[in-house]
């Protein structure tokens, strides 16, 4: 079972966050020079970013078990995507030389295998950054 909340009313009055998404052509050009590429997925994407306490009331919903508010960003809010993109960009800023991303998918790329293993380890073991990534996609 999956919880679905209709945020059309909230979205109608929300100010859009126009944070830019990465350009796919730039990503392809950037990683196209690499010999090795590993792709990762941000685990449960949107739910990794927090909703400010003062804004949680906007995410409230009622179900058979009571009334609840999200503490993590739910899917369906107008600026959920932009919030996630901004968070991932901030997380990857220090390792930008060997990573590229689009929404919640991250690529780690290198010209040799030794560097690739090192770069993958940096991405997957650094849990202090606040975004967790799943093992490489096949």
In words, what does this structure look like?
The protein has 138 residues and is an alpha+beta fold. The chain is built from 4 helices and 5 strands. The protein has helices spanning 8-13, 24-31, 80-92, 113-125, and strands spanning 36-41, 61-63, 66-68, 99-102, 105-110. The chain has a 3-stranded antiparallel β-sheet, with helices on both faces. Strand 4 (99-102) and strand 5 (105-110) form a beta hairpin. The two termini are 27 Å apart. The mean pLDDT is 87.
Summary of the model, kept short:
With 138 residues, the protein is α+β, with helices and mostly antiparallel strands.
Architecture blueprint of SSEs:
Blueprint (H helix, E strand, L loop, with lengths): L7 H6 L10 H8 L4 E6 L19 E3 L2 E3 L11 H13 L6 E4 L2 E6 L2 H13 L13
Antiparallel strand pairs: 1-5, 2-3, 4-5
Largest beta-sheet characterization: 3 strands, antiparallel
- Could you report the average pLDDT, rounded to the nearest whole number? 87
Number of E-state strands: 5
Helicity level, as a percent range? 25-40%
Give unreliable regions as ranges. Answer: none
Q: Which strand order does the major sheet show?
A: 1-5-4
Q: Distance N terminus to C terminus?
A: 27 Å
Total helical elements: 4
Order of helices and strands: HHEEEHEEH
Structural class: alpha+beta
What Rg is obtained from the alpha carbons, in whole angstroms?
Answer: 17 Å
Query: Could you tell me the strand content as a percent range?
Result: 15-25%
The coarse overall form would be elongated
